[in-house]
Structures are given as structure tokens and as C-alpha cells.
Specification:
By secondary structure, the protein is mostly helical. It has helices at 59-65, 70-81, 88-113, 119-149, 153-161, 173-180. The protein is 51% helix and 0% strand. Helix 3 (88-113) packs antiparallel against helix 4 (119-149).
């Protein structure tokens, strides 16, 4: 039986003398020429490589070409995306309308289960949803108008009383112990 352990080191053949331990140099053909040498090759849409962005342009350039100020468009988008913060009174009014809507929807489900006429409940629920949406739009516009016209909290306090409350700064427990000692 012939195994790798049976063969001696003498049985290995040495590398040929032409072997240098490196890969042979790659011989490339010259670049192929276009049929009409006066026209430069196009690299945009007719290129063999596809552009992942297509013919897309930056957003700012597109808006400017339409005559829209990109900064104003950004501000408008931020205002739309902002979370509507309601005052306590506004929140109470919204919750009251929501409670009425839930009650009407419960009556609608009950009418559906008992196979009673449900059209009046469906219409009432739709009216309440519209009322809730209008209320939220109204509150959002009022709150945005107030936010744009208002000053910062510090300026507001200085204007009212001339005194500014010192905001509490976070203090590590170790710092507090050192301060109190």
C-alpha cells in the first residue's frame, strides 16, 4: 500500500528552472477604436454600464428649476412633519370628540350585530371623524402660528418679570456629595 507517509522527500520533483515564483505578465491588446474617430464616445445614457441613479439630479437643482426655494420647501416639510403639541384645553376638546366617536362606533357595531339599520350610525360616525380631523387641523395651525410668533422661554420670562429662572442642571451623585460636604 502506497501512502504519503511511505514516500521519501527525494521523490518530489524540483520546479522547472524557468519558474520565478511570480505570475507571468499580462499581455493586453490595445483598446478598440470607434468607427468614427471624430465623435467622442458617449458616457451617459448609451454607456454599457448602468448608472444606479439614472438621470436623477439633486433635489435642490430640481426645485430651483421649478422656481421653488429649497430652504422654504425644507421648512414647510419640517412644519408638516412636526408633532402637534396640544394645550390642556385643546387636549380635553379632542378627547371629548374622540369619546363621542367611540360611543357612536360602538352603537354602529351593536346595530350591525343585531342586524338593525346602521346607516344613521355610519353617517354620524363619519361626521364625528370629519369634526375630529377639522379640530386637529385647526389646533395645528393655531399652535404653529403661535410657535412662529413666540420668542424663546428665556426672552419671554425676561420680558414679563425681568428675572430669569435658573434651569436645573444635571448633577452626578458624586458631585452632589462633594458639593454638600
Amino acid at each position: 500500500m502506497n501512502t504519503w507517509a511511505d514516500e521519501s522527500e527525494d521523490s518530489f520533483q524540483p520546479a522547472p528552472s524557468s519558474y520565478t515564483g511570480e505570475r507571468p505578465k499580462l499581455n493586453l491588446k490595445p483598446r478598440s477604436q470607434t468607427k468614427d474617430p471624430t465623435t467622442p464616445p458617449t458616457t451617459s445614457a448609451s454607456s454599457s454600464k448602468s448608472n444606479p441613479f439614472g438621470a436623477a439630479k439633486p433635489r435642490e437643482l430640481v426645485l430651483q428649476s421649478k422656481g421653488i426655494d429649497p430652504a422654504a420647501a425644507d421648512k414647510k416639510a419640517e412644519r408638516k412633519a412636526g408633532v402637534v403639541r396640544l394645550t390642556d384645553e385643546q387636549n380635553r376638546r379632542v378627547e371629548a370628540v374622540r369619546a363621542e366617536l367611540e360611543e357612536i362606533e360602538a352603537q354602529l357595531r351593536e346595530a350591525n350585530e343585531n342586524e338593525l339599520p346602521e346607516e344613521e350610525y355610519r353617517v354620524a360616525a363619519e361626521r364625528k371623524r370629519d369634526e375630529l380631523n377639522e379640530l386637529m387641523k385647526e389646533f395645528q395651525s393655531v399652535n404653529l402660528r403661535d410657535a412662529e410668533g413666540s420668542t424663546t422661554r428665556a426672552e419671554e420670562e425676561e420680558r414679563r418679570g425681568g428675572k430669569r429662572e435658573e434651569t436645573r442642571k444635571f448633577e452626578r451623585p458624586s458631585e452632589r456629595r462633594r458639593r454638600l460636604e
